[in-house]
Amino acid sequence: MLPIALAFLAAIGFGSSAIFARIGMRGIHPLTSAFISVVVSFIPAAILAAIFALDDIKKLPLIALAAFLGLGALNFIGGRTQNHISINMIGLHDLVHL
């Protein structure tokens, strides 16, 4: 029962975070809001990576690290942009008012 409850909680968290982020960034272009989201999300991810995997990161070749960071940033920005655009297209921001 616990895994089902945690999966349900994760789904609610992902859905509500997308909706609340879009409500907060209503007057901003989707690419700008995706960039802000990437910058804010990168900080805790970088801190956790430095704490738990700094030795592994140091062992990576420079080209592998650059490719990893570049593809990760491109995929994250692209995914967030598509998420914000889809919320705009279905009109969800009009249904949810504070």
Please, could you describe this protein's structure?
This protein is mainly alpha-helical and 98 residues long. It has one domain. The protein is 88% helix and 0% strand. The protein contains four helices and no strands. α2 packs antiparallel against α3.
Topology:
Layout: H1 2-24, H2 30-59, H3 62-90, H4 92-95
Concise description?
The protein is mostly helical. It is 88% helix and 0% strand.
Structural features:
mainly alpha
Question: What is the end-to-end distance?
Answer: 33 Å
The structural domain count equals: 1
Helix count equals 4
Helix/strand-derived category reads mainly alpha
Secondary structure: number of strands:
0
Fraction of residues in H or I helices: over 70%
Shape, principal axes of CA atoms: globular
Let me know the largest β-sheet: none
**What is the H/E string?**
HHHH
Average pLDDT value? Answer: 80
Task: Report the sheet-strand fraction.
Answer: under 5%
Radius of gyration: 17 Å
Poorly predicted runs: none
